Amino acid sequence: MALFDKFARLAAARRELARQGVVPFGVEVERIHSATEGEIGGRRVILAGTNNYLGLSFDPDCIAAAREALCAEGTGTTGSRLANGTFAGHLALERELADFYGRRGAIVFSTGYLANLGMLSSLTAPGDVLLVDADCHASIYDGARLSGAEMIRFRHNDPEDLRKRLLRLGARAADAVIVVEGIYSMLGDRAPLAEFAAVRRECGGYLMVDEAHSLGVTGDRGRGVAEEAGVESEVDFIVGTFSKSLGATGGFCVSDRPELEVLRYASRPYVFTASPSPSVIASTRAALSILRQRPALRRRLWANAERLYRGLEALGFRLGADPSPVVAVLLDTREQALAIWAGLIERGVYVNLMIPPATPKGRSLVRCSVSAAHEPEQIDAICAAFADLRGIGAAPSRAPAAGGRGGN
Ligand code: PMP
To answer: 178-215 pLDDT, tens per residue?
Structure first.
């Protein structure tokens, strides 16, 4: 095969989409007005596909903190955390994250992707075993690959399948690392963490939870699904990102394990990349402080999530899981998903188009993500745009929630 032949399928798929007059991936947001409004294709749109769960990307305190750091510390650190790239802000944010989670230590990474890559590739090595939920994010699979550990996929959200696979490992189960997410990004379904924790208690191993989509979203203090399920003490490593509820970029891991500190030195995705810019760290610290002090934002987020979910449900659309800030509208075909996505843009609403191979079980869907910053009227406008397109994807009555359960 010639070097570039491997792109033939992708190129054909792109051409086919372009032929249908849509360019759904890498859409240019020509202008951004606020956490919930921008311009795409010369049209003002409501942003309903951004993961900006608390709407903090435009928070005045976050912007002021970023501006101050930018002026005081410059545009970038120009170096790795292990060289010249550790500033006071990085260390302060690590202390604040550890304090927020009530954990002994924290590591800040340059992105959430790198947090998973950095943790998994340093924690596990050839000879170790990783057990990964089938629907986990690409960064978890890539981290597993980089580690060289044996990787076993278990059925999505299926503690019994995990249990069987751990039992099969015999004595090796004691040192296996189990990886799941809190809320899953495609369908918005939650991991049954209490059940997973019980399996781990019975069979052994270490538990890592990626709370990328649940930090600031669930739990009494906004710590995520582990807090909500009351099993935080049974989770060894919590990983997360600054790119969703905290409105910036970056990632982290918190843990009580004393080894976390030395793991930095073994983590290539931590060592061999530049640290986050001072302004990013400053806005993230401000956002974390707001997340802690303003639980009302979480309540607004959930009120909006319920409003959108009930609105789409009433229109007869099939939805991916129970209400959550990720509301996935399931469609039968790629063509339907494309038509709804493009129709929504025409009606002033931006959501995410998700089609195979990026989706679990080859599903086609459009994914809405709700923000605390949405006004109820914006949620109603999103529903009204979907109502116009009901002919394409809605069933007369709601089908059973798919929830992403079962194996791929
Ligand atoms: N983990 C999960 C579960 C995610 O959904 C994402 C981003 N979509 C990431 C990690 C990566 O986060 P980041 O954007 O900060 O690289």
So the answer is: 999 999 999 999 999 999 999 999 999 999 999 999 99
Among 250, 269, 293, the domain-final residue is 293
Would the CB of 185 count as within 6 Å of ligand 1?
yes
For tokens 């597993």, name the residue: 144
The pTM for the full model equals 0.94
Q: What DSSP element (H or E) covers 140?
A: helix 138-147
Ligand 1 mutation target, pool 137, 142, 245, most atoms within 8 A of CB: 137
CATH classification of the domain holding 71: 3.40.640.10
Q: Which of 276, 293, 310 is the last residue of a domain?
A: 293
100 lines ligand 1 (CB under 6 A): no
- Any residues with CB less than 8 A from the CB of 155 and at least 6 apart, and which? 134, 161, 405, 406, 407
Neighbour-count burial for 170-179, b at 16+ CB within 10 Å, e otherwise: eeebeebbbb
Q: Evaluate: CB of 111 within 6 angstroms of ligand 1.
A: yes
Please give the distance, rounded to the nearest whole angstrom, from the Cα atom of residue 23 to the centre of ligand 1.
Answer: 23
Residue 404 domain-assigned (yes or no): no
Domain assignment of residue 108, given as a range: 58-293
Same domain, 373 and 289: no
* Catalytic status, residue 185: yes
Task: Answer whether residue 389 is part of any domain.
Answer: yes
Q: Residue 288: CB partners within 8 Å, gap ≥ 6?
A: 93, 96, 97, 100, 246
Catalytic annotation present for 80: no
Pocket test for ligand 1, best of 139, 140, 185 (most atoms within 8 A of CB): 139
Count of domains for the chain: 2
Task: Give the CATH number for residue 306.
Answer: 3.90.1150.10
For range 312-338, the mean pLDDT: 94
Q: Is 402 inside a domain boundary?
A: no
Q: How confident is the model at residue 316 (pLDDT cuts 50, 70, 90)?
A: very high
Task: Give the CA distances from residue 349 to residues 185, 209, 360, 367, 384, in Å, rounded to whole numbers and listed in that order.
Answer: 19, 32, 24, 12, 10
Q: Does 400 map to a domain?
A: no
Q: Supply the pLDDT for residue 396.
A: 53
Instruction: Quick: pLDDT tens for 342-373.
Output: 999 999 999 999 988 778 788 999 999 999 99
> Given CA atoms 159, 161, 162, 164 in this order, what sign does their dihedral have?
positive
Is 110 annotated as catalytic?
Answer: no
Residue 112 Cβ inside 6 Å of ligand 1? The answer reads yes
* 235 and 166 share one domain: yes
Q: 247 with 349, same domain?
A: no
